Amino acid sequence: MTNWTQAQAPGNPPKSNAITDVACPFCGLVCDDLELARDEKGLHVTKNGCEKAVAGFERNVDGAKPQIEGRDVDLATAIQAATALIRKSSLPLYGGLGTDVNGIRSVMALADKSGGVVDHALSEGQYRNFRVLQTTGWIMTTLTETRNRADVIIVVGTDIQKLHPRFFERIVNVEASLLSETPAKRTVIFIGKGLDQSAVKGPRIGEIVTLPCDLDRVGEIVGALSAEIRGTPSSADSVAGVPAADIRALVERLKSAAYPVFVWAPPGLNFPNADLVVSAVSDLVKELNVKWRAAGLALGGNEGAISAGAVSSWQSGYPLRVSFASGKPDYDFLRYAIPRMIANGEGDLLVWLASFTPDLGPPATKIPTIVLGTPGIKLASPPAVFIPVGTPGADHGGRIIRVDNVVSLPLRDLGRSKLPKASDIFGAIELAL
Ligand code: SF4
């Protein structure tokens, strides 16, 4: 629950040292209960953070300057140079897109005006979900529903702890729920071996079960579960190294559960045709709902990917991988994948935006590159133009959409720096074009 004072509302940096109820933009969960303190050295996460939050908020971003070909320039000169490159380009590629709702709105407007292509750096993972959603639909739930209702949580082949370090703390191991002050313990099932289970502990956790198959074979386990539920079980003694008896036992658990939730994070399903796993999980959930109840919960959505997909859908009608080259939105998730376009020599300018983490550097390319990035962003070589920009939720206010797509959260200006907003830079370029 956000609890702003006037001084802490978006756009107004807090005046006291202690800052409460901070929303964290450094992964798709957007936890909104962090506490920070600020002193002359910068921001410090004092409560409810995780290692990603500490790395994100406590980074020193002072001293970065706009550059042209590695030479420091003033901001107006850098904007002028970026504008000239975009004006000259016949097919600019707008990639990265690590930003908030306002940031992505400004990218869409500029791409529309300049006839460019729009694609997020994490689209490949997101498309493991989109392809299923677009073809067969699915039955999904939210973080809040999972937190309050799930009695069995099945983690499908992804290292949730690595991608979302507070998922188990905030969603799974919660002492009370909306429905009960003393809710029953939960069963947590891991399909796949080697997944970090270290945070699955505490009073709400009952049994922990592991079906230890190789991660690229989780789809076989999910398929075997579906076959059991349909009444057409496999006659094999084991599937992907997991005994058939364990698969049957899991099916019985699912049938007797009140609200089992299958959780996965698309970026973690990093093997060929991983969208088939998402499709198989989605089918399994639908089959369970014929007689019982179940839902899916897709995580991921780091680096503002959910906001990018949502705003692109609102504004163009399509979820990213959209080209405005013809003067109207044109959608093709294969053709307008920026990594593929760069590899095939398509596009003559890369405009890269990464305002959250320095790890989201632009890909290697021979075409000129404009980077709007958080200071310290990984760059293989100086881009044609570099403009340091602030992080929404640390250096300026903003808004971001949570991974389950049902809420957008305000991000506060914590006064970390005076770095400009990416949306202001893109707005200035769009005006000047
Ligand atoms: S889990 Fe994600 S949103 Fe929550 S504090 Fe960590 S990085 Fe921030």
Architecture overview:
- This protein has about 425 residues and is α/β, with parallel strands linked by helices.
- It has three domains: about 50 residues, no CATH class; about 190 residues, Rossmann fold (3-Layer(aba) Sandwich), CATH 3.40.50.740; about 160 residues, Dimethylsulfoxide Reductase, domain 2 (3-Layer(aba) Sandwich), CATH 3.40.228.10.
- About 30% of the residues lie in helices and about 20% in strands.
- It has 13 helices and 21 strands.
- The protein has a nine-stranded mixed beta sheet with strand order 5-4-19-18-17-6-7-15-16.
- Strand 20 and strand 21 form a beta hairpin.
- Helix 8 runs parallel beside helix 10.
- The chain is globular and about 65 Å long.
- The N terminus is likely disordered.
- The chain binds iron/sulfur cluster.
- Iron/sulfur cluster binds next to helix 1.
**How far apart are the first and last residues' alpha carbons, in Å?**
42 Å
Helix tally?
13
Largest sheet entry: 9 strands, mixed
Average pLDDT number: 93
Instruction: Tell me, briefly, the overall form.
Output: globular
Helix content percent band: 25-40%
- Give the CATH architecture of the largest domain: 3-Layer(aba) Sandwich
